[in-house]
Amino acid sequence: DTIRYLSLHDNKYIRYFPGHTKRVVALSMSPVDDTFISGSLDKTIRLWDLRSPNCQGLMHLQGKPVCSFDPEGLIFAAGVNSEMVKLYDLRSFDKGPFATFKMQYDRTCEWTGLKFSNDGKLILISTNGGFIRLIDAFKGAILHTFGGYNNSKAVTLEASFTPDSQFIMIGSEDGKIHVWNGESGMKVAVLDGKHTGPITCLQFNPKFMTFASACSNMAFWLPTIDD
């Protein structure tokens, strides 16, 4: 239930951040400063500063949260109870959300993550079911629901945007990576990384055309350049 801040340089913990009373299920670092947010099964979201072990802000929710900063570090989104996305302004988040988007609740699965696209226009909602959702970050309208990949055991699979915000990708239970065009909603590729288990981590390089995917082993991906 405690968050730790690790120095990779000398492999020591610099700071502990106690406060949550149940398992931490979401963690998002501000892209612009030393602020980060965490969400826990204790139904709270906490706001922190890396320089202080004390929580800088606390929000009580009605259910399990997932949360993420937007790319400019000005607002953050909280997904609550697998049915609502609430947007908060970082400077006045104690006043409550400035926007709330209610989705249809799906009893078959729960939300496992939220991510903003780099242009800030889209939010990707990951689930532990057989689909992920792409919504408009300003209006909350569902733009696409992506499915057709394997996830029968309710694994938390990580979905990611490409840095140009145009494509969405997710690993699957059978070790394949599925890629969709965010605008058209069409599946454009299924990549086989020879993964032996479910791909629980998938992260795109923020600058270059490479990404990494991991089950119990890890694969690095490079583009194929035709001669």
From TrEMBL:
<dbReference type="InterPro" id="IPR001680">
    <property type="entry name" value="WD40_rpt"/>
</dbReference>
<dbReference type="GO" id="GO:0071027">
    <property type="term" value="P:nuclear RNA surveillance"/>
</dbReference>
<dbReference type="InterPro" id="IPR037867">
    <property type="entry name" value="Swd2/WDR82"/>
</dbReference>
<keyword id="KW-0806">Transcription termination</keyword>
<dbReference type="GO" id="GO:0048188">
    <property type="term" value="C:Set1C/COMPASS complex"/>
</dbReference>
<keyword id="KW-0539">Nucleus</keyword>
<keyword id="KW-0677">Repeat</keyword>
<dbReference type="InterPro" id="IPR036322">
    <property type="entry name" value="WD40_repeat_dom_sf"/>
</dbReference>
<keyword id="KW-0853">WD repeat</keyword>
<comment type="similarity">
    <text>Belongs to the WD repeat SWD2 family.</text>
</comment>
<dbReference type="InterPro" id="IPR015943">
    <property type="entry name" value="WD40/YVTN_repeat-like_dom_sf"/>
</dbReference>
<keyword id="KW-0805">Transcription regulation</keyword>
<protein>
    <submittedName>
        <fullName>WDR82 protein</fullName>
    </submittedName>
</protein>
<dbReference type="GO" id="GO:0110064">
    <property type="term" value="P:lncRNA catabolic process"/>
</dbReference>
<dbReference type="Pfam" id="PF00400">
    <property type="entry name" value="WD40"/>
</dbReference>
<dbReference type="GO" id="GO:0032785">
    <property type="term" value="P:negative regulation of DNA-templated transcription, elongation"/>
</dbReference>
<dbReference type="GO" id="GO:0140744">
    <property type="term" value="P:negative regulation of lncRNA transcription"/>
</dbReference>
<feature type="repeat" description="WD">
    <location>
        <begin position="149"/>
        <end position="190"/>
    </location>
</feature>
<dbReference type="GO" id="GO:0003682">
    <property type="term" value="F:chromatin binding"/>
</dbReference>
<dbReference type="GO" id="GO:0006353">
    <property type="term" value="P:DNA-templated transcription termination"/>
</dbReference>
<keyword id="KW-0804">Transcription</keyword>
<feature type="repeat" description="WD">
    <location>
        <begin position="17"/>
        <end position="52"/>
    </location>
</feature>
